[in-house]
Amino acid sequence: MPSKVQIYAQLAEDTGRQIMKDYENWTAFLRTSARLYKYPYADQLMIYAQRPDATACASYDLWNNTMHRYVKRDSKGIALLRANGDNAYLTYVFDVSDTGTRRNSRPVVLMEMYPEHTEPVMSALEDRYGVSGDKSFEDQILDISRLLAEEYWEVHNGEIFDIVEGSVLEGYDVLSIKNSFLQAVSVSTAYAIYSRLTGDPDGYFDQEDFRDVFDFRTSGTTFALGTAVSMLSEELFPKIDAGTSA
Fold first, then answer.
1. 3-state secondary structure string, 121-144?
2. What is the pLDDT of residues 60-88, one digit of tens each?
């Protein structure tokens, strides 16, 4: 009989394959991951597999001791896989919807962007990344996502080349692998950002924009793509959040 760790490890593997089935599955994952941008890709995948509607997750102790919120009775924790050397184990987090307030509870503030935020956010992003927002906010986000994808590639391309065996990418030359990665990462990062900041992220893209994403269907390449998008989102969201709070 498989252990709990084995069951959840299989869930992660199955979900990794599921999100790579098509545009709808991948973008559904991106919408969840955007709400959980502080978590690494592996945790985002586990949360998506169990609670795709989660909005803000934290450990029992953080909810109780830091946020002074209680976890409701019978709430089911969201399992996350952890490793300590050769030993794998589970930890659990709970979504804000699993919690209730006390008299001294701290508010859970989720990032929101209103029209009056657009100009200060665009200005802050231009100052930080040197990317103009002359055309539109959406174009600026896409251009910055591409810039960050290129920077990520320069650091991590050796790791990408090491895992292309068995994937569609194996038949590509070096430049084609690079271009496929940059397109997949930049469009996915931009979609994740749009999903938090616009009402209709699908209105800015079509399925053809995501064609390169599905070169990354093996477990290793999916993990590499998901990790890159997660790290770029974690870079961008705080800069945008700071602009909305200015």
1. HHHHHHHHHCCCCCCCHHHHHHHH
2. 999 999 999 999 999 999 999 999 888 99
Cα-based distances in Å from 244 to 31, 35, 141, 192, 239: 20, 16, 15, 17, 9
Residue 205, domain extent: 112-245
Q: Tell whether 5 is covered by a domain.
A: no
Q: Is pTM, for the whole model, over 0.85?
A: yes
Q: Output the DSSP codes for 97-126.
A: GGEEE-TTPPP-------GGGHHHHHHHHH
Domains in the chain, number:
1
Would you say 97 and 71 are in contact if contact means Cβ atoms under 8 Å apart?
no
Q: Which amino acid is at 52?
A: P
Helices 41-50 & 23-35 angle (0-180, nearest 10) = 110
pLDDT at 2 (0 to 100): 84
Residue 158 burial (CB count, 10 A): 7
- Alpha carbon distance 35, 43 (integer Å): 12
Whether 30 is covered by a domain: the verdict is no
Assigned domain for 62 exists = no
Are the CB atoms for 27 and 201 separated by under 8 Å? Answer: yes
Q: For residue 137, give both structure tokens.
A: 């906010």
154, with CB counted inside 10 A (0-12, 13-18, 19+), is exposed
By the 8 A CB rule, do 54 and 35 touch?
Answer: yes
Nearest-angstrom CA–CA distance, 21 and 27: 11
Is the residue at 11 inside a domain?
no
Q: Is residue 74 left, alpha or beta, with left meaning phi > 0 and alpha meaning psi from -120 to 50?
A: left
Q: How confident is residue 97, by pLDDT bands cut at 50, 70 and 90?
A: very high
